[in-house]
Structure formats: structure tokens, C-alpha cells
Amino acid sequence: MPAECRCGRPCFYFRRQSGEALCKRCFTKSIERTAFKTIKREGLFTRDDRIMIALSGGKDSIALAHILSKLERRYGTELFAVTIDEGVQGYREEGIRIANEVARRLELQHYTFTFKDAYGYTLEEICAIAKSKGIQLLGCSFCGILRRRLLNDLALKLGATKVATGHNLDDEAQTFLINLFRGDVERIGRAGAMPLVAREGFIPRVKPLRYIPEKEIAVYVYAKGYDLYQRECPYVRASLRDEIRDLLNRLEADHPGTKNSIVNVSDSLSEMLEEKILSSKMEHCSICGAPSSRKICRACEVFSLLGIGKSAV
Amino acid sequence: MPAECRCGRPCFYFRRQSGEALCKRCFTKSIERTAFKTIKREGLFTRDDRIMIALSGGKDSIALAHILSKLERRYGTELFAVTIDEGVQGYREEGIRIANEVARRLELQHYTFTFKDAYGYTLEEICAIAKSKGIQLLGCSFCGILRRRLLNDLALKLGATKVATGHNLDDEAQTFLINLFRGDVERIGRAGAMPLVAREGFIPRVKPLRYIPEKEIAVYVYAKGYDLYQRECPYVRASLRDEIRDLLNRLEADHPGTKNSIVNVSDSLSEMLEEKILSSKMEHCSICGAPSSRKICRACEVFSLLGIGKSAV
Predict the structure, then answer these.
(1) Which CATH number belongs to the domain containing residue A258 in this structure?
(2) Which of these, A127, A166, B78, B137, could form a disulfide with B50 (CB 3.0-4.6 Å)?
(3) Is the pTM of this model over 0.95?
């Protein structure tokens, strides 16, 4: 392994796939370059966009906020961050504290909203209701559905034109495999750095870190001197995603580039299928009126399954 | 587990995915029904077809020959079988003996051709040349390329209008994942029960067993009283396909239906991408003139890599 970066500085990170030794500066620059290239190539933002960052306080969202705040300084792009407090005592407080610090450091306008205010229940209370009704919580699906729904409602309320999320290469490769193993061809076609176009009531979500491996994002956040939020949510269950994470890590170790290949295939398919997907119906939930490809949106499905109220944002 | 089939006969096979207990008769009927449904739904054959069965002597090709010979008896479809002797002493003879017996039992016209006659070298000699030149044989790729090429040449020579192969559900799900992990979106789009249409010099290959799990094919062949060819080719190397086979078997055990989901996604994608793929170039190899999507076909690539002569069929 070379001990020095091309620029002569000592090696900080060895990128196995390309065989590059990178100093701290060249490493962080390369991460930012990848994100900016993605933004440019995929046309994720226009100068008139008002971008809402989904800032959980985890490493991916910290990297995203740090990189996008450069965009703000360079181009004057309007940017603000939203943190959602799902309400899990002894776990979520640390993430929220970190999110607050990140927003302060980056001088980002920052809002925090709670599940309790939006839905009338914390995630803990929702899990307790599910348990009392004998409903098996599958992985983190409830929480994910309710969080995505709240993010869209907040983006509408706060006048955002794009929602940026910190999904990384690993997340995207995992999601492709999950959709594949479940036979969900529609979701495969809808993936992409900018998966869905704006439609009435729906703010497009963009993923500028989609081509950056999870590990490199963690190293980037560490290099930039941020706290890393290490605890795991007590509601996380062993899920198909965990199995697939392990599988992909094994494949990547033996065949470097596998995760990239999967995401590249996903991109090519989305591009080729774009017309078919765009021409497919985007309807409105018959209960709450939110845009959905289903008759009843997933959030309302959760509410009715649990017998609780609906979004009050 | 129920001890009896719905028809009252004793259980011969328990199909885990559907929870069905099946007697021998209902099991074999269900396998044949799946193959016939595939043939009908995908329009694999017309009554005027002259079908060449690629009969290696392995379980998949035995099941294929047995099932297609029913088609011959019912509809008078023209059918014949071809066995390719790649030339691997102490291994291939058993498969060829079984292929001969199968053809005799099913009263199929049967031809055997050798790599030696077609290419001037047995697979053993080709492997020795590769070894002497320090060329790493990747899995079974050389053998596969040369076999597929010879099958097409023989189909042309013997006046076949379709080549039927015994690819099963496991093969197809594995191939999808291999193409995905390699980022080969073109091959993903070209998969399907009838992956390629007829073009000048190219006889379409069809896969009537594409939706039948490997395990059920083995049980079917056993139920029909055929010898199973158990030896493994000495040239088989631990390959990506082996890893993926294990992975899929683990996934299928934990999440029954995964292999089917993958093949269903593969089908939907092929269907949606059909126009794009059909409009893509099918050129001719600049060395041998055979149809190929590449400037130099894979067979000629192998020949020139090894410095040996080309197909003489």
C-alpha cells in the first residue's frame, strides 16, 4: 500500500477499488467532487430551488448538510434543514443534539418536528399500540413510512421545492436488491438520484450521495470533525436489509465494484423505463388526499391498521 | 406436513412455497403443466417449428427432452436432440451414455458432435493450451462460449428453427444476479424465456423450464426413472455462480419465492425493454461472420486468445 498521496501528503485513506492512497484533503475533495458531479449530471437542483435537508443527525445526513452548505455559499442556493424527532427515549436525544450542533456550525436554518405533534403519538407509543394489537412490526417500515410522509408534508408547509436525503451507495444497492427479491419491478423503475418528479402535492426527493459508499461517508464526517452518532435504535430488528447489507459487503470484498455495478444498472433501468413510469398513474389517497401510487397511501394504511388518527401537520 | 396429496394418494413431494403435498403423479403433472404454460404464454414454439434439444445428459436436459417429447406426440412437432461431447475423459462419457439412453427411450433422432471435430481440439486440449500460455480459465466461460457457438452452428446445419435448452429457475435467477453484479444491463434486458429473436444466422434459443426450480427438476427426472448424472466436471472452478447459488438457496430458505421474484422482475424488465433491445445493433463478427452484438464474437475472441483455429462445422 503506498504511504503517500499523489500530492505528497501522508496517506489518510486507502481506496481499495481504485488502489488510490489519499491524504485527508484529497480524500474529502474527492467525496465532494462525486456529490457535485451527481448533482450536475442528474440535474438535481436548479438555482431557484429551495432545498430542505432531511437532517437526522446520522453520518449520512451530516455529510449531506456539510456538502450542500458549500453549494449555498457558492451559488446562494436556498437551504434549510429539518430534523424529525420520532420519539424514542434514551436513543433519539443524541441524534437531535448532533443535528442541532451541525445546523449551528453550518449556520443552517433548522426546524425540529416531532411524531407526537404530527401524529399525536411518539414512535414508542405507536410501537406499544402495535404490540398490544398483536401487530408484528416489520423492520423499520412503520417509522420509515411515517417519517417520509411527514417530510413531504413539512416540505410543502415550509415552501421547499426539493427534499435532499443522505442515501448512500450501500443504501441504494441494498434497496435495489430488496425490491428485486420482492419482485417489485415498479420500485426498481422508480429508483434513481432523482426518483420522482414533482406532481401536485409531492416534493421531489433527491439523493446527492447516491454514488458514495457508506464507509467513505463515515470517514468523511470523521475527517470534517463531526461527532458520530453510534447508538442503534432499540426498535431496529434483524431485517432482510441487514442480511443484504452483509451479503453486499461480502460480495464487494471479493469483487470490488459490485455495489457500483448494481446502482449503475438501477440507473440505466430507471432511465430506460422513465417514460413507462412517468406515464403510470400517480393518484391521490382516498382517505387523506396525499399523492400516492396506491388507492390508500401507506401512511393511512398504518393509521388504520393501528386505529390511530392521521397526519395533523 | 400433510401426509396425503389432495387426490388421496400418499405424499411424494412437499412443495414448501405453496404448502402443497403432492403424490408422484400430481407432482410430475404440475411440472409438465408449468412447462406447457410457459411454452403457451411466451409463445415459444409454433406448430411449424423444428426444435433442436440441447441434450447434455444432465437432469435439466433430460426433463426437457421428456416434456418436449410429449409435445411431439400430441401435436406432431418436429423434434431432435443434439449432444455435444466437449472431450473430458473420465467425466463426459457417463453423460453421453445417459443422453444416448434418453434419446433411445424417447425415440428421438439424436446427433452427437465433438469439440474435437468442430474446433480441432477437445476441451482438455484447450485447457492445456490455455494453461501453457498462462491464461486463467474463468469458471466455465470458455466451454460455455464454444458450446453455445457450436449449438447455433449445428442448428443452422440441421435445419432447426428453435434451440431448446434446459435452463431452470435457479439458473435464470443466478444469471440475473451475475449480470446485475457485473453491471451488464444489456444482458439483463435480453433475458427471458425466448431471449433473442431470429436474425440472419441466429437460431432463437428457448427455455421452457425457466420457471421450474432446479430441485423439482431433479425430483421429476428421478420420478420418471432416469439415471442421474452425478459427477462434476473436473474443470469446474469455484466461481461467482457458485457463490450466488449458495446465496440464493439461503435467501429462498428464509424467504420462499425469492428466486421466482427475481425471474419475474427479469421478465418484466425484458418485456418493458424489448423495443430498446430489439432496436439495438446485431452485427456480424468481423472474423467469422457469425451474428454477434460485438465486433469480434466471443468464440473468435477465445480462438485468438488461445491462438487456435476456428469453427469448422
Answers:
(1) 3.40.50.620
(2) B78
(3) no
